[in-house]
Please model this.
Amino acid sequence: MKTLIAYFTMGGRTKKTAKAIANSLTNYEVTFFLIELTGKFIEKIKMLDKYENGDFSAIETELNALDVKDYDLIIIGMPTYGSKPPNAFNEIISRMKNLSGKRAIVFTTARFSGGKALEYMKTKIEEVGAQVVNKAKFRRLFYLGVKKSSKFGKEINEG
Ligand SMILES: Cc1cc2nc3c(=O)[nH]c(=O)nc-3n(C[C@H](O)[C@H](O)[C@H](O)COP(=O)(O)O)c2cc1C
Model:
């Protein structure tokens, strides 16, 4: 079976979580689609600002190639920004070809809450015709370990 894990990360916590989930998916061939903000803090903020304002020109090629036709499962992971995922989430799901009819899983990382972000993601994905079969929130104010995400990965792996 094949799975695509699409995630966005600015501070690395969602990336770490996505990798921990992936490491547990021994029954799957895993491919990543990542939007990772890099560089100095100010550079990250500038990039985030562009994305939040709908300017995805920097990753247009990657977004254009985003097609999930060959995947059995789509996993989307996002940080929680103001109780929602970043705008990159909307862009990813609107640009993802053949998402309709697929099985999907969503997760979010957060410091305080994150519940609303998950519901938002589930609703939006279902609007484009995919089925959200599982969801998880990984919340820690400071250090976010991988115990829970590895366990979640195992749960997915065993289907
Ligand atoms: C602009 C911004 C807004 C945030 N808003 C929230 C929030 O509403 N609720 C929350 O629990 N955490 C919030 N956080 C914390 C992030 O969700 C959390 O640190 C997340 O794990 C970051 O993921 P990343 O390291 O992959 O970028 C916010 C962080 C930033 C930078």
Notes: The chain has one domain: 2-157. The chain has a mean pLDDT of 97.
